[in-house]
Amino acid sequence: MKTTNHNQIHKKLIFYLEGQLAELERQQIEEHLSGCGRCAAYLNELKSTLLLLDENKMNEPGPYFYAGVKNRIQARRLKTAIFRRVLQPALLVLLLAMGVRFGVWVGNHTRIDLQSSEQAVLVPFDDLAEEPIEEFLLNLK
Ligand SMILES: [Zn+2]
């Protein structure tokens, strides 16, 4: 067998292991492997490396871990969004309603207060109107 063939086989071995080769290429590699200890050893090395990589993939925080974190972040964002879009306006509406109620209450009470204080204010005003302003200023001294 030619030496260049070994290198070609080596390059294809990873695809061979992952089953990504065409039937003809796969057969050629299997044929070569059965008669070449060097390439067979390389294949075993590659296999164990791939297995290690797979194990690492398993131990690594995988896509599910990230999906979980992402979900948690999204859930938090959703909560904030719900708060912003639903609860905040609801609170505003509530505050507004309370404000309106308070306003009406205050309005009702001040109106009553005004009615009583209006008379109290009007009385001295009437006195001032009767009294010329100059005289009033002179009396102050
Ligand atoms: Zn070989």
Itemize the secondary structure elements and their pairings.
Layout (H helix, E strand, L loop, with lengths): L2 H15 L5 H13 L1 H23 L3 H68 L2 H8 L1
Helix pairs in contact: 1-2, 1-3, 2-3
The site of zinc ion has 6 residues, from helix 1 and helix 3.
Bound ligands, each once? zinc ion
Tally of individual helices? 5
Quaternary structure classification = single chain
- Outline the biggest β-sheet: none
- C-alpha end-to-end distance: 130 Å
Describe this protein's structure:
With 141 residues, the chain is mainly α. It has a domain at 1-60. Helix content is 90%, strand content 0%. The chain has five helices and no strands. It has helices at residues 3-17, 23-35, 37-59, 63-130, 133-140. Helix 1 crosses helix 2, helix 1 (3-17) packs parallel to helix 3 (37-59) and helix 2 (23-35) crosses helix 3 (37-59). The structure holds zinc ion. Zinc ion is lined by residues 6, 9, 32, 36, 38-39. Zinc ion (ZN) is lined by residues 6, 9, 32, 36, 38-39.
Keywords summarizing the entry:
141 residues, mainly alpha, rod-shaped, binds zinc ion
Concise summary:
With 141 residues, this protein is mainly α. The protein is built from 5 helices and no strands. The mean pLDDT is 77.
